[in-house]
Amino acid sequence: MLLEELIEAFRVLPGVGRKSAQRMAYHVLERGREGGKRLATVLAEAVERIGHCAQCRDFSEDEVCAVCASGSRDRQQLCVVETPADRLAIETATGYRGVYFVLQGRLSPLDGVGPRELGLETLGTRLAAGEVSEMIIATSATVEGEATAHYLAQLARQHGVRPSRLAQGLPLGGELEYVDRGTLSHAFGTRAEMP
Amino acid sequence: MLLEELIEAFRVLPGVGRKSAQRMAYHVLERGREGGKRLATVLAEAVERIGHCAQCRDFSEDEVCAVCASGSRDRQQLCVVETPADRLAIETATGYRGVYFVLQGRLSPLDGVGPRELGLETLGTRLAAGEVSEMIIATSATVEGEATAHYLAQLARQHGVRPSRLAQGLPLGGELEYVDRGTLSHAFGTRAEMP
């Protein structure tokens, strides 16, 4: 049955179980046929045509993505992130004008994710070219993210590139009471003198 | 940009905002290309081919749906539900062997949903044919659902059909403490003598 197939097909989406998939199928059929048709078309095209940028490994329709191809970005700063979503978050929230490198993951030997899977050979070649002076390591603040950051920092130093890491501490607007213990303890320990 | 279009396209789905849409797009591109391709194909086909059953108004690929076309259902019992999801819930949870009628909504004059929009003329014609003896009204227990139920009960009686309504009370396994006041009060008022 086609409806049943549609419900099953929606389950490929993240966080979508049987119940949500059913709701999506009904919604599209009841009130969103035009949008559904459009989603089908765009999705088919995207899956077919979107690959990875040869320089930064982010998603890209072209051989080289728009940011890497842009003439107005500062190629001395290279920001390394775990995922395309992280890159987008930095691009949206900050005024960063350098370029990126997307790992598409983080070091996790137990899951079989090593330096090769993260494209660190490509990254090494790029650092060796000598154009980059600062590597901004923006991996997440998890155990695996930290391990990846250490590895990346070593790699940077090998090529005479200065590694830097995003600041850690209390989130802006965060109530002290609700901040987790680890963050609080870290922020307390690394407190800075007020000007 | 194709990726941007894909993210926008996902927003047609219910409960999917910008952030979820982005997560879906990235997920499909990173880990679900096969599933994504399949979703695109099935979705395009479903939007094109799934219409409404001429007899019960549920979704159907064919002129008449599988339940209405089945020779093994009891045509004396007609269960009226608001949505295809409701029909599916009853079909899955109960042993009901009668047939259905799907309103695809409920009476809501302020939103411009009257008897015509709910296909009540078709329903009336069906009751007039004399085959149905009991109309099980399974609209929801909301104000609008109740109003719809009353209207349906009148329609049934006009055609000499016995209307019935799903029982209301404490949900099975529900702790008294957590049941809402309305339900508790109703269940208390309609308490039944124990055998």
UniProtKB/TrEMBL annotation, chains A, B:
<dbReference type="Pfam" id="PF02132">
    <property type="entry name" value="RecR_ZnF"/>
</dbReference>
<keyword id="KW-0479">Metal-binding</keyword>
<feature type="domain" description="Toprim">
    <location>
        <begin position="76"/>
        <end position="171"/>
    </location>
</feature>
<dbReference type="GO" id="GO:0003677">
    <property type="term" value="F:DNA binding"/>
</dbReference>
<dbReference type="GO" id="GO:0006281">
    <property type="term" value="P:DNA repair"/>
</dbReference>
<comment type="similarity">
    <text>Belongs to the RecR family.</text>
</comment>
<dbReference type="InterPro" id="IPR000093">
    <property type="entry name" value="DNA_Rcmb_RecR"/>
</dbReference>
<dbReference type="InterPro" id="IPR034137">
    <property type="entry name" value="TOPRIM_RecR"/>
</dbReference>
<dbReference type="InterPro" id="IPR006171">
    <property type="entry name" value="TOPRIM_dom"/>
</dbReference>
<dbReference type="GO" id="GO:0008270">
    <property type="term" value="F:zinc ion binding"/>
</dbReference>
<dbReference type="InterPro" id="IPR015967">
    <property type="entry name" value="Rcmb_RecR_Znf"/>
</dbReference>
<keyword id="KW-0233">DNA recombination</keyword>
<keyword id="KW-0234">DNA repair</keyword>
<keyword id="KW-0862">Zinc</keyword>
<comment type="function">
    <text>May play a role in DNA repair. It seems to be involved in an RecBC-independent recombinational process of DNA repair. It may act with RecF and RecO.</text>
</comment>
<feature type="zinc finger region" description="C4-type">
    <location>
        <begin position="53"/>
        <end position="68"/>
    </location>
</feature>
<dbReference type="Pfam" id="PF13662">
    <property type="entry name" value="Toprim_4"/>
</dbReference>
<dbReference type="InterPro" id="IPR023627">
    <property type="entry name" value="Rcmb_RecR"/>
</dbReference>
<keyword id="KW-0863">Zinc-finger</keyword>
<dbReference type="Pfam" id="PF21176">
    <property type="entry name" value="RecR_HhH"/>
</dbReference>
<keyword id="KW-0227">DNA damage</keyword>
<dbReference type="GO" id="GO:0006310">
    <property type="term" value="P:DNA recombination"/>
</dbReference>
<protein>
    <recommendedName>
        <fullName>Recombination protein RecR</fullName>
    </recommendedName>
</protein>
<dbReference type="Pfam" id="PF21175">
    <property type="entry name" value="RecR_C"/>
</dbReference>
